Amino acid sequence: DVKVTQSSRYLVKRTGEKVFLECVQDMDHENMFWYRQDPGLGLRLIYFSYDVKMKEKGDIPEGYSVSREKKERFSLILESASTNQTSMYLCASSLQVRSSLAKNIQYFGAGTRLSVL
Amino acid sequence: SQQGEEDPQALSIQEGENATMNCSYKTSINNLQWYRQNSGRGLVHLILIRSNEREKHSGRLRVTLDTSKKSSSLLITASRAADTASYFCATDFTGNQFYFGTGTSLTVIP
Q1: Least confident window among A21-25, A90-94, B28-32
Q2: What are the percentages of helix, strand and coil residues in chain A, rounded to 5?
Q3: How many CA atoms lie within 13 A of A114 on its CB side?
Q4: A3-12, A89-98, B92-101: which has the minimum mean pLDDT?
Q5: Which of A95, A82, A67 is nearest to A18 (CA)?
Q6: From CA B106, how far away is CA B110, in angstroms rounded?
Q7: Which residues are registered as beta bridge partners of A31?
Q8: Which is higher by pLDDT, A26 or B4?
C-alpha cells in the first residue's frame, strides 16, 4: 500500500514564525502536492512538484514556498506564519503519467492541522 | 478557478437509505474521480470514471457522468453509519493535476 506520511497531525505556531510541514511518500511517485482545506472552500492547491528540485505554483501560492530535494520528500514552508494560514494542510502523491488519457489517482497523507496564534 | 462544486453541501439520511450527491465542473475533462474523507483525515480514492464512460459501479457505489452537462453523480446504496464522511469529486484534464470540488458532508443516522 502507498503510504504518505505527514510529520505532524497538529501544530500550533505563533504569528511571524517560520513553519515547516514535511511530507514523505514511499511509493517512488514522481508527483507530489500540497493542498490546504478550509470549510466551504474544499481543497485548494498550493504547490505541486513533478520532479526533484522542480516546483509549480498552484492556485494559492502566496505566503508559501516548497522544497523537494529528494524524490520521496516534499516540504511546505510558511516563511512568516500569519493567522489566515490557520488551516488543514494535506499532502498527496501520484504517479506521473505521460498521456492525458491515462488513469491516475492521488494518495493522501492524514493531514496537518495548523493553528497560527 | 477550475474547481468543481458538489451539491448538496450537507446530506443527512437514515441507515439503509440511498445517498446521492452531485458534482459540477467547468472545463473539459479526461477523468472524474470521487474521494472520501473521514473527519480529520486525508482523502481516499473511491472510483474513477473516464470521460467516454457514462456509468460505473463499484460495490455499493454507482457513478454517472454527463459530459454535455459537465456533471457527475455519486450514489451510495443501502447506506451504513460507517459511510458518514465527506465526499469530493476531482477532475483532471492532464492526468497529473487534479481539481477538487468543495465536498458533500454525508451523515448516516443509525
Answers
A1: B28-32
A2: 5, 50, 45
A3: 31
A4: B92-101
A5: A82
A6: 13
A7: A94
A8: A26
**Residue B50 CB-half CA count within 13 A:** 6
Yes or no, beta carbons of A42 and B100 under 8 Å apart:
yes
Q: What own/partner pairs with CB < 8 Å and gap ≥ 24 does B57-61 have?
A: B61/B34
Report the mean per-residue pLDDT for chain A: 92
How far, CA to CA in Å, does B10 sit from each of A37, A94, A105, B36, B71?
A: 17, 29, 25, 14, 18
Question: Cell triple for residue B28?
Answer: 473539459
C-beta atoms of A94 and B103 within 8 A? no
Percentage of the residues of chain A whose pLDDT score is greater than 90:
82
**Burial class, B2, CB count within 10 angstroms (exposed 0-12 / middle 13-18 / buried 19+):** middle
Q: Name which of A57, A98, A100, A114 to mutate to probe chain B: the one with the most chain B Cβ atoms within 10 A of its Cβ.
A: A100
**Grid-cell match 483532471, residue found:** B92
CA distance B102 to chain A (A): 4
| Amino acid at site B34 | W
SS3 B82: helix
Using CA atoms, how far apart are residues B62 and B50, in angstroms rounded to an integer? 14
Q: How far is B16 from chain A (nearest CA, A)?
A: 28
> Cell 516563511 appears where?
A79
